[in-house]
Protein: Amino acid ABC transporter ATP-binding protein (PAAT family)
Organism: Paludibacterium purpuratum
Amino acid sequence: MIRLSQIQKHFGAHPVLKGIDLLLPAGSVTALIGPSGSGKSTLLRCVNLLEMPQHGSVQVGETRIDFDHRGQHSRHAILALRRQTGMVFQNFQLFPHRTVLQNVMEGLVTVQKWSRDQARERAMTLLEKVGMAHKADAWPATLSGGQQQRVAIARALAPAPQVLLCDEPTSALDPELAGEVVEVLRQLAQEGMTMLMATHDLRLAANIAQHVVFLEDGAVIESGAPDAVFGQPRHPRTADFVSTLT
Ligand code: ADP
Ligand code: MG
């Protein structure tokens, strides 16, 4: 349901993604692993078009955009594709001057033009889902990192995206707080949310994902089921990298 074909991205003369193919079946969870600088964040940003690839195509559901060297794409298609994706960042990126509830409601009201009452209702449902309804009126700065990330997940889910993109969602958290975020993501996976997450966290990559993709230097070196990639890596570079994970 999400298909990337031959995605290329370079910054100036520096090639960062060298022709990536990736298929995310509906309801599947894919972990993107690889060394720092291998292009994981850039790839995630190419899915929701925070970065525009210079070549290849991105398809989310019915919406497909073909990129070429000219970069002429309809604004309409770009917005349509962005609406199908939700993004969770390593550092949460909540709006500091808005309450928890306002953070989750905001996009529904300003972008999707929902009424405040409807947006509040949906936001509260999502906050209950991530175990944060009791903090609806709190300010982000008063929350733990794990709580902030759970709110950020609720916010990303608010417009009912077809895919949730997570960029190292537990990397900024102590193990205990990371655990509560892992639990929320595990529950979403069980409910059939399609997810693509860049992570160094084996609890996410080995236990929640059905597919693992190892990226190095802008190319997919190896991919497969977690048991295969972590247990019997075929490529020596994968084996080296996997041995560094905890
Ligand atoms: P990862 O998430 O795997 O650590 P990134 O996608 O962040 O990797 O970065 C891949 C490469 O692209 C790095 O060499 C990084 O310096 C470069 N890069 C990322 N974003 C930009 C940018 N906006 N401008 C220039 N270079 C960038
Ligand atoms: Mg990154």
User: Anything to note?
Assistant: The CA atoms of residues 67 and 97 lie 37 Å apart. The pocket of magnesium ion (ligand 2) is lined by residues 40-41, 167, 198 (CB under 6 Å).
